[in-house]
Amino acid sequence: MYAAALCAGAAAWLMAGGEQGLRRGRLLLAGGGAVASSRDGAADRVRSAARRLRRRAGARREWWCVPAALAVAVLGGSLLPLIAGAVAVPLLGRRLRAAEHARERERRAQGVVSLCGAVVGELRAGLQPGPALASAVRSTGALGGAETAVLAAARFGGDVPGALREAAREPGAEGLAGMAACWRVSVDGGAGLAEGLDRLESALRARRDQREELRAQLAGAWSTVLLLALLPAAGLAMGTALGAEPLRVLLHTPAGLGCLAAGGLLESAGLYWAGRIVRRGEPV
């Protein structure tokens, strides 16, 4: 019990450890630069603090495994759930980071589609290719860290296709390679840049819609996998409600420990197998 309490305190300290940095950020925001009014400054500080808290909470969601494991350890009177929760923290963290990378990739791909449409609009409004690209990049903010290099090339007559190909190396931004090819063809061969980018935007949008449709069709399969993963927990909760004390049997008897080990291995193998089957149908 002392070890469980110590682990719970460590988890709470890790999840709340950024309060000092948050106060320092608030002080810097309060004194850095001129503000229009005290009300506007207070609103900006509140929004900045809320964003930082959301990022910190999202970055440490895997640490909630420790309090959950602590609750099960207290109910079952054993340290095994706490050990399992500590082992689950890095595994869940890796899974959450992979999901965040996938969402960032999707946002970047959507930004490339928006950038193509914005450049086409600026070109048809009468701007030259360089200013049109610079205006579209500033309005959409789709390039992230590569925005500076692309803007410099567009403003000062640099190698725009090279900058776009460099930016296309980011996951999800592969469509920028097509934009670079359209730019190169329009400069060397005199072809219309607006028409090429319009076709590129249509192709990228069609590919995005296809991925979303396929992902929607796979949502039912992922729901089934999640339901199967939660069935053992539902069975334990039902047994506890009926007074059968399944946690005591599983954690304090040789037969229960054997069943727990075998069930854990079968559950892990089943989830891996089902997830691999469903993941094969996901869009690349």
From TrEMBL:
Signal peptide: none annotated. InterPro entries: T2SS_GspF_dom (IPR018076). It holds the Pfam family T2SSF. It comes from the Bacteria. It is a multi-pass membrane protein. The chain crosses the membrane at residues 68-93, 218-243, 255-274. Residues 120-239 form the Type II secretion system protein GspF domain. Keywords: Cell membrane, Membrane, Transmembrane, Transmembrane helix. It is found in: Cell membrane. This is Type II secretion system F family protein.
